[in-house]
Specification:
- The structure holds two protein chains of two kinds.
- By secondary structure, chain A is α+β, with helices and mostly antiparallel strands.
- In chain A, a hairpin with a 2-residue loop joins strand 4 (57-60) and strand 5 (63-67).
- Chain A has eleven helices and 13 strands.
- Chain A has helices spanning 9-18, 31-36, 72-79, 84-91, 96-101, 104-110, 118-123, 141-144, 215-224, 235-248, 259-281; strands at 2-4, 23-25, 44-47, 57-60, 63-67, 127-132, 135-140, 145-147, 150-151, 158-165, 171-176, 187-194, 199-205.
- Chain A has a domain at 171-281: CO dehydrogenase flavoprotein, C-terminal domain (Enolase-like, domain 1).
- The termini of chain A are far apart.
- Chain B is an alpha+beta fold.
- Among the domains of chain B are: 21-28 and 451-577, Aldehyde oxidase/xanthine dehydrogenase, molybdopterin binding domain (Aldehyde Oxidoreductase, domain 4, 2-Layer Sandwich); 33-133 and 172-263, Alpha-Beta Complex (Aldehyde Oxidoreductase, domain 3), CATH 3.90.1170.
- In chain B, helix 11 packs parallel to helix 12 (517-540).
- Classes of the chains: A alpha+beta, B alpha+beta.
- The A-B interface holds A 37, 88, 91-92, 172-177, 180-181, 183, 261, 265, 268-269, 272, 276 and B 258, 417-425, 427-428, 611-614, 616.
- Chain B: InterPro entries: Ald_Oxase/Xan_DH_a/b (IPR000674), Ald_Oxase/Xan_DH_a/b_sf (IPR036856), Ald_Oxase/xanthine_DH-like (IPR016208), AldOxase/xan_DH_MoCoBD1 (IPR008274), AldOxase/xan_DH_MoCoBD2 (IPR046867), AldOxase/xan_DH_Mopterin-bd_sf (IPR037165).
- Chain B: It comes from Phytohabitans flavus.
Chain lengths: 282, 650
């Protein structure tokens, strides 16, 4: 197995163009597990850990651009105030050691339906910045995933960053696990309420072949929320929102949980997250 | 009666630091997976991908052709007994014509690099013919049925509760995977360094399979990373020895985490059907129970597991009429065997659930109905055995009940069901409190000749009295090394005690299991120390050892301890046995099967998110009668550890 170790972004893109079979590796928290268990033996690894710009983040107006190599720990510590939903999700990833190593870019690259970062990125309408020697393109997270562990990423492309509007409040993330920490999601839900634009964003994890939005639930809530006076959410509205979120999922029975439990849990999480997010704005 | 020196430092009743503690915390302890030898080869195991299949052929050509491969062996290379087992020799060293569970070893490889060995195993071509596996124990072949019957089988009662319970498989998941090093010896034998629970039972089985006399198979205990029953059966011991003898090179084998789950037995899954009858006042009248245990593909310790389930299966209660049957069956599921509290804990889940049901049916408190029926010293077990030791069942329950209730949740996410995964801020959360008590036998039962051997030597080193304790007791993390030294210090009044590495150059200590090692090897060390002391005292006409002096019956110093020892070291070896036990009647289960019993009462306080089914264990209060705590800190460690085992078993 070849081990490619570019030190600049241009070198990384050139290496990926020359070795489209090379598997990019950042924190290694997914890739190394697969290698160690012999589930995958790629012809080459492309180590991105020396490419400094990948670990940087910056602002562009009220937009944030976060390098694909920023680990979860820094998302929590440095961006918790600007991206509260993503920070909540990052806090549920693995152990402290994993959060030191694992990156949002790696999560996107693996494109698991259970990836913890995906629901908050969906809810916040984030964009993924993809780059290759051919140029740069931006893809809405919603269009990024094409199937379980599949994405629109071309063989010569690398994930450079994600771009997202800062939120400060109105975001929530909740995840069900088979225990209370260090677990892969049985299902998860993210919500982003934007009181300025009066938009509602949702993201469902681990309950469909890809992370998905609950678009009908979003539209329902945009119409029903009392945006002007910010009055409390009527219980009937919260319940219907929960029902619509559950209906948007396409879960399966597997070792972590049944489809029926996932739908039920999503309706509960959506209902609760709505109340918390709305209270955060009042 | 001679006196022992209670003043000696780090003796019985204190909690001296364990010798391996700091090393383990700092990551410097050498586990069996850290063993190394000049010129050693690495072993790997090819395992069956199928739970049940016929093997029509095995082609080793491609594996042997890989550079760096020194040996590829199958069952044809097993020189001695082709099968082994703790109670019944039914498990093939390497599969012979069929495989009976997924993960069963089929062939073994030695190569100059672990990766090469692993790859070579992948190059072995096995022609399997898949067969439908038996996965339901009630469709499997019966391995043992243990009935226990007493009183009137047709007894009736005012209040009757029934229940059907199921408990799943559990894995010991010790942190240090199966590993060891086999070194071929000049006499044609083998030196085996392994992490195990019982060196001598390994020695007996390994020697039989290698076709060697026991004295040519010499075992030394290597650093054990946890055991919990999973190291009672053989794993890599015969395989590494075969490869070492074949290649005439040292061979090391280390299972990975995933392979480890195939490498040892698990806790038996069980289905338990119970019927409890009681008077309207809450006195138990009868218990009828049928327990079905899934033994998996091979016997391991299944027969003892079934006996424990049957003989302890109604719990620590007085019940005049019992109709109990525990049966264990062969299936094509992973083999099940020893895990902490085997047999007793499966039944405990069922009988304690029944006691809660009964309390609800009677309108009594769950603690009250338990206390009302609690056995005491002098009670008669359903096997007819009279409980002779202390049985403070009611008192243990009263103690956990009397503990102050834990404070209400602060609603910090880390204290809530779901934790920081943020599933509730208190919504749907209710607090439940549950009680349970369990009974377990201590040491081996049913007439087994259970003993331990200790060799104790008292000598002068650099002019100072020093003690060397040598036993084959496996230190598996429970602290038996520390305890042996404590006992020797107190018995001989000498602080300087060394505990030699456990190996087979001393007699068997029995297994580090069944809660027996402090009692049994501790007892053997004590007896050997007493023998040493008797010789010493006789030498100078003393009656006791106090503060480094030998004193007479009047308490007057007759000699310095060092003087008494002089240049004549005293060494004694003692085999120590607990009182005998007896087989039980195969039809009625009557008999004095057990040595003694231990009891543990718990009160669990648990916050439950009733909408999501998530839980947060707030507190578990535990009360156990531990007898004399030889090392109080180690006792606490045992209780905490086993409580987490139970906690994880849901």
């Amino acid at each position: 197995m070849d081990f490619l170790q570019p030190s600049t972004w241009d070198e990384a893109l050139a290496a990926k163009a020359a070795h489209p079979d090379a598997v990019p590796i950042a924190g290694g928290t997914d890739v190394m597990v697969e290698l160690n268990f012999d589930r995958r033996r790629p012809p080459a690894l492309l180590d991105l850990s020396r490419v400094a710009p990948l670990t940087e983040w910056g602002t562009d107006g009220d937009m944030l651009r976060v390098g694909a190599g920023v680990p979860y720990r820094r998302i929590i510590e440095e961006l918790g105030g600007r991206l509260p939903g993503l920070a909540m999700a990052a806090r549920t990833v693995g152990s402290p050691q994993i959060r030191n190593r694992g990156t949002v870019g790696g999560n996107l690259g693996s494109a698991s339906p259970a990836g913890d970062a995906h629901p908050p990125l969906l809810a916040a309408r984030a964009e993924v910045e993809l780059a290759s020697v051919r140029g740069v393109r931006r893809v809405p997270v919603e269009s990024f995933f094409t199937g379980p562990k599949r994405s629109v990423l071309a063989p010569d492309e690398l994930i450079a960053a994600f771009r997202v509007r800062t939120a400060r409040a109105g975001e929530q993330f909740a995840k069900i696990g088979t225990r209370n920490a260090m677990v892969i999601a049985v299902c998860s839900f993210a919500l982003a309420l934007d009181p300025v634009r009066r938009t509602v964003g949702t993201g469902i994890g681990s309950a469909a072949p890809t992370p998905v939005r609950a678009t009908a639930a979003e539209a329902f809530l945009v119409a029903e929320l009392d945006w002007d006076s910010r009055g409390a959410v009527p219980p009937g509205v919260a319940a219907e929102f929960g029902r619509l979120v559950a209906a948007a999922a396409a879960p399966i029975d597997d070792v972590r949980g049944t489809a029926a439990y996932r739908r039920h849990a999503l309706s509960v999480l959506a209902r609760r997250a709505l109340v918390w997010a709305w209270e955060g704005l009042r | 009666m001679t006196t022992v020196d209670q003043a000696v430092r780090d003796g019985i009743g204190t909690s001296p630091r364990r010798p391996d503690g700091t090393l383990k915390v700092k990551g410097e302890f050498a586990f069996s997976s850290d063993l190394w030898h000049e010129d050693m080869l690495w072993g790997a195991t090819l395992r069956s991908p199928y739970p049940r299949a016929r093997i029509r052929g095995i082609d080793l050509t491609a594996a042997l052709a890989l550079p760096g491969v020194y040996a590829v062996l199958t069952h044809e290379d097993v020189r001695g007994a082709k099968r082994y087992g703790l109670e019944i020799a039914d498990q093939p060293v390497l599969a012979m014509g069929e495989v009976r569970y997924q993960g069963e070893p089929v062939a073994i490889v030695a190569a100059d690099h672990p990766e090469t060995a692993r790859r070579a195993a992948g190059h072995i071509a096995v022609d399997y013919f898949e067969l439908p596996p038996v996965t339901d124990p009630e469709e499997g072949e019966l391995l043992r049925r243990v009935p226990v019957r007493t009183g009137d089988p047709h007894a009736t009662a005012d209040v009757v509760v029934t229940g059907e319970y199921e408990v799943g498989m559990q894995d010991q998941a010790f942190l240090g995977p199966e590993s060891g090093l086999a070194v071929p010896a000049e006499d044609g034998g083998v030196e085996l360094y392994v992490a195990t629970q019982w060196l001598h039972v390994d020695q007996k089985q390994v020697a039989a399979c290698l076709g060697l006399p026991a004295e040519k198979v010499r075992l030394s205990l290597s650093g054990v990373g946890g055991a919990f029953g999973a190291r009672e059966d053989l794993s890599m011991q015969v395989h590494a020895s075969m490869l070492a003898l074949h290649t005439r090179r040292p061979v090391k084998m280390v299972y990975g985490r995933e392979e480890s789950f195939y490498g040892h037995v698990h806790r038996h899954p069980a289905k338990l059907r119970y019927e409890h009858g009681a008077t309207s006042g809450g006195d138990l009248v009868y218990v009828r129970a049928r327990i079905v245990l899934d033994g998996g593909a091979y016997a391991s310790s299944s027969t003892a597991v079934a006996a424990n389930a049957a003989t302890l299966g109604i719990g620590p209660y007085e019940v005049p009429n019992v109709d109990m049957e525990a049966s264990v069956y062969y299936t094509n599921n992973p083999p099940c065997g020893a895990m902490r509290g085997f047999g007793a804990v499966q039944a405990c889940f069922a009988y304690e659930s029944q006691m809660d049901k009964l309390a609800a049916a009677l309108g009594m408190s769950p603690v009250e109905v338990r206390i009302r029926n609690a056995m005491t010293a002098g009670s008669r077990m359903p096997t007819g055995q009279v409980v002779e030791g202390p049985a403070p069942v009611a008192s243990l329950l009263a103690r956990v009940r009397a503990r102050p209730a834990p404070p209400p949740s602060t609603l910090d996410l880390r204290e809530l069901p779901g934790g920081v995964a943020n599933t509730t801020h208190g919504e749907g959360v209710v607090r439940g409190v549950g009680y349970a008590i369990g009974i377990k036998n201590v040491a081996f039962s049913e007439g087994f000749d259970d003993y331990s051997t200790a060799r104790v030597r008292l000598e002068l080193i650099g002019g100072e009295p020093a003690v060397l304790v040598h036993t084959a007791a496996a230190e598996v993390g429970q602290g038996v090394v520390t305890v042996q030294a404590q006992i020797a210090r107190t018995e001989l009044g000498v602080e300087r005690v060394t505990v030699a590495t456990a190996d087979t150059t001393v007699g068997s200590a029995g297994s580090s299991s069944a809660s027996r090692q402090t009692y049994m090897t501790g007892g053997a060390v004590r007896a050997a120390c007493q023998a040493v002391r008797a010789t010493l005292l006789a030498r100078v006409g003393g009656a006791g050892i106090v503060g480094g002096k030998v004193v007479n019956a009047a308490g007057l110093v007759v000699a310095d301890l060092a003087e008494a020892i002089g240049d004549e070291p005293i060494e004694e070896t003692v085999e120590w046995r607990h009182r005998p036990t007896y087989p039980i009647d195969p039809e009625t289960g009557q008999g004095n099967a057990h040595v003694q019993y231990a009891f543990a009462a718990h009160r669990a306080t648990v916050d439950v998110d009733v909408e999501l089914g998530l839980v947060k264990v707030v507190e578990i209060a535990t009360a156990q009668d531990v007898g004399k705590a030889v090392n109080p800190l180690a006792v606490e460690g045992q209780i905490q550890g086993v409580r987490h085992r139970g906690w994880g078993w849901h």
